[in-house]
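Consortium newsletter contribution from the modelling node. Members have asked for a concrete example of what our holo predictions look like. Here is one, prepared for the alpha-L-arabinofuranose complex that several groups have been discussing at recent meetings.
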Amino acid sequence: MSDDPFRVSMAIDPDDIVAPVNRRIFGSLVEHMGRGVYGGLYEPENPWADEEGFRTDVLALVRELGVRIVRYPGGNFVSGYRWEDGVGPIDQRKARRERAWHSLEPNTFGLDEFARWSVKAGTEIMLAVNLGTRGARAAAELVEYANVTGGTKRSELRRSHGRERPYGVRTWCLGNEMDGPWQIGHKSAADYGRLAAETAQAMRTIDPTIELVICGSSARDMPTFGFWDETVLEHCHDQVDLISAHAYYDPEASDLSSFLASGAAMDDQIRQIVAITDLVARRKGSSKRIGISFDEWNVWYMGRHESRSADPRWRHAPRLCEDEYTFADAVVVGSLLITLLRNVDRVEVACQAQLVNTIAPIHAEPDAPARATAIYHPFALTARFASGNILRTSPTGPSLETESHGEVPAFDTVAAHDDLAGSVTIFSVNRSTTEPAQVSIDLSALAAVEILEHLVMEGKTPTTRGKNGEGGPPHEAPWHHDGDELTLHIPPISWSMLRLAKG
Ligand code: AHR
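And here is the predicted structure:
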């Protein structure tokens, strides 16, 4: 560790706008996986559960986290799911063996429960349809159940289940990770492209207002990355609005410096997907701009877990991938959010995967109030304070050489300017493992400013896993403000947020 800081300079110019912050960047995934739903969102017998069986302690943390949209019901789970099994009177629903995670699915929580939970959580619904074992017909019937007011077979079925008004689900995913050999019903790019085009047409016939997400590559290191995305867009370009991207960063798959630079890998992935979507649009002579739905991203100790239940019995809600996070993980989550915000002109939806217990910012045990894990804090603060327009900041500073991602900037940052609220918020990450950063910010383009707070998330043992993650929630840090210049001292391996009000 060195006391000698490296220097960074940058300027805040409220006119240098990337795009307005889209709140759907602050999304999440709720999947029937492990204890994500049962024992997470839903646990009727729990003392913290409300009259509908939803854990109120979890709901309170979800609201505070600031999640805007939640993708459901998977993930890999959706590729073997029959949505009809999860609707209607609970006591008449039947359990099934669920193949994606080798679990027993009781079907006591389905679309109607999720929709009621979403109202309580204040979140928008994003639904995935099964294109693994099912196709256009089941998907269109689900749109009819969810979005048609009445007078048709499935809309009347919904009404008979006690839900008079349609759910009005706007955003729909055409399957999940269909390029992955692990996926139930995995397909070639051409087969999936044709099926997705047919399904999109069937779903839009029922509700022409819906927004559709085609499955892009499930990871940047898939051997078919790029080829898959181009092929499926060749089939569906005119029918879809967004293409999905997924990325998980395993702290134990690389050295610490490479892990801390995960945001640079995400940046590259976004750039490559944008290049492909724009290439296909040009080839088709279309002016349409396909957006990105980065609908699975997170830090995940993938190498540590049997992600499918290793238990040969078909267990209900087995514990799967219940990671304890370190503060280095929190720093990376904060930096991935910086990347997503910087690309808000092309990333229209993003979902941290997942929400509760499984790879999650919230942890719930049956006998204790739910709690935030270390990765909760940067998400909650970013969702709360990133508003208005994202600005280009173009910091100048040194680079770091990393084993997995080559040269990356040692310091990364994004700024949000909310003209209505009269505020500017700057989120930053110092990726150096040894040196603090001395950051000079030119504020001359703003009128007089008042510094409201500077919070830093740091710790001395970045990779210690613990209940709340070493380092805990962010703490207040000093700043120096002189005329038009603001100077921050940002410790190594840290995520920080500076808020200022325009005078
Ligand atoms: O989020 C866990 C799993 O990761 C999802 O089910 C799948 O889509 C991805 O591979």
